[in-house]
Amino acid sequence: QVQLVQSGAEVKKPGASVKVSCKASGYTFTSYDMHWVRLSPGQGLEWMGIIYPSGGSTSYAQRFQGRVAMTRDTSTSTVYMDLSSLRSEDTAVYYCARGLSLAAHDYWGQGTLVTVSS
Amino acid sequence: QSALTQPASVSGSPGQSITISCTGTSSDVGGYNYVSWYQQHPGKAPKLMIYEVSNRPSGVSNRFSGSKSGNTASLTISGLQAEDEADYYCSSYTSSSTLPYVFGTGTKVTVL
Questions:
Q1: What pLDDT does B2 receive?
Q2: What is the average per-residue pLDDT within B101-107?
Q3: Can you tell me the distance from the alpha carbon of A81 to that of A19, in angstroms, rounded to the nearest whole number?
Q4: pLDDT at position A80, please?
Q5: B1: pLDDT confidence band, cut at 50, 70 and 90?
Q6: What are residue A81's DSSP bridge partners?
Q7: Statement: residue B110 has pLDDT above 80
Q8: Could B99 and A61 be called an inter-chain contact, meaning their C-beta atoms sit closer than 8 Å?
Q9: Which of these, B22, B3, B19, lies nearest to B11 by C-alpha position?
Q10: Minimum distance, in Å, between the CA of residue B74 and any CA atom of chain A
Q11: pLDDT for A90
């Protein structure tokens, strides 16, 4: 069965970076794109970007440009999301989600809570 | 590019039907048949309920249905059940190269 398993919760200080992993199993890793979405406290879902595991190309939401990097390791079927220059507003649960169709994500990771606090 | 507009809350009694709206523009909801709906229970990951306006993934109850008219998409839950109480988000593909996907503001569904 399809599974996306994310790394554990992180606590970071403002200005630091965080790297969240998402290990996929149960399907052909390079056949589906992978998105990152976050849910901030009291806010809604926010799309951050997409990585195409087959070639590694990426596309990021403009508000994260320059601060986010998404990479993949095809040997371990894992995608990574690196967010730098963290600020308190980045405190959120970060999800990886497999793309089924445009704007449709059929499988989601369990979420990774990132807390940014001094 | 702003978030799609949803009502903050919708409520209904068990067995009733409710409809959640999702209003965008001709650059997103109105321009493409790529609107999805997600259900999210507290502390859980979102679950895809509807994709491409009206398609249900395997395993999703047929009590959930989607539609679109102009720049507004809708999710209807019929035969409301206690387990339907959750947050619901719409999402759409957009024409923006800087934000190709946008979510709605979210709707809290309460079963009375």
A1: 81
A2: 96
A3: 6
A4: 98
A5: low
A6: A20, A70
A7: yes
A8: yes
A9: B19
A10: 15
A11: 97
Residues of A within an 8 Å Cβ radius of B: 35, 37, 39, 44-47, 50, 59, 61-62, 95, 97, 100-106, 108-111
Residue A62's SS3 state is helix
The contacts of residue A45 (CB under 8 Å, 6+ apart) are A37, A38, A39, B38, B40, B46, B89, B91, B103, B106
Read off the pLDDT of each residue in B18-34 and give the average, rounded to a whole number: 97
E-assigned strand segments in chain A:
3-6, 10-12, 18-25, 34-39, 45-51, 58-60, 68-73, 78-83, 92-101, 104-108, 112-116
Contact B91 A103 (CB under 8 A): yes
Are B81 and B14 in contact, with CB atoms under 8 Å apart?
A: yes
Instruction: Indicate yes or no: CB of A101 within 8 angstroms of CB of B52.
Output: yes
Q: Output the pLDDT for position B63.
A: 98
Q: How far is B80 from chain A (nearest CA, A)?
A: 23
Q: Chain A neighbours among B 13-72 (CB < 8 Å)?
A: 32, 34-36, 38, 40, 45-48, 51-52, 57
pLDDT block averages, 10 residues each, chain A of length 118: 98 98 97 96 92 95 95 97 97 97 95 97
In chain B, the residue whose alpha carbon lies closest to the alpha carbon of A62 is: B98
